[in-house]
Inverse folding.
């Protein structure tokens, strides 16, 4: 997988168009609910928040297929991670320094966006590191954002703004 990098992580955690009308929901997930899988050769651990890693399945419900892996790597550890072919993927460094695919060095608060071709990303920790490896099936729909609103068209943005301003944007459950 080839990559491009930037210093900020921002983007919609969008849902496919057919899910946009569904009610949002809160998922309270505790640490005890998140499976933790040891990496080979004592390289560290993977906490599976969403999706699958090996035999472990994360507790988070998602609108489209995705993996959210909280990876804790030991200094000097190097390990490959297999991703589904064609999925988009990014590595977010929360702490430490890692080398991605033997090329890009990423430090705390860096985002490395991986090319969707290929199925493996190789991470090498230059120090103890915590990274999020995010991957998901592409939605392949247009994205239009304005302030906190993310929709597929400008008209949908205008409608969302009207709904918000008129108080029809939803209700807080009792």
């Amino acid at each position: 997988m080839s990559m491009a990098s930037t210093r900020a992580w921002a983007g919609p955690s969008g849902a496919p168009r057919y899910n946009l009308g569904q009610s949002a929901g809160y998922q309270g997930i505790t640490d005890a609910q998140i499976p933790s899988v040891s990496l080979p050769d004592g390289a560290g651990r993977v906490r599976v928040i969403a999706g699958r890693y090996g035999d472990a399945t994360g507790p988070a419900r998602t609108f489209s297929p995705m993996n959210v892996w909280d990876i804790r790597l030991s200094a000097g550890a190097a390990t490959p991670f297999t991703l589904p072919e064609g999925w988009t993927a990014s590595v977010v460094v929360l702490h430490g320094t890692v080398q991605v695919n033997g090329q890009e060095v990423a430090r705390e608060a860096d985002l490395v966006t991986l090319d969707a071709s290929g199925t493996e990303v190789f991470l090498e920790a230059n120090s103890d590191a915590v990274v999020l490896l995010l991957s998901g099936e592409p939605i392949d729909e247009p994205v239009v954002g304005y302030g906190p609103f993310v929709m597929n068209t400008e008209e949908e943005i205008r409608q969302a703004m009207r709904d918000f301003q008129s108080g029809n944007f939803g209700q807080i459950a009792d």
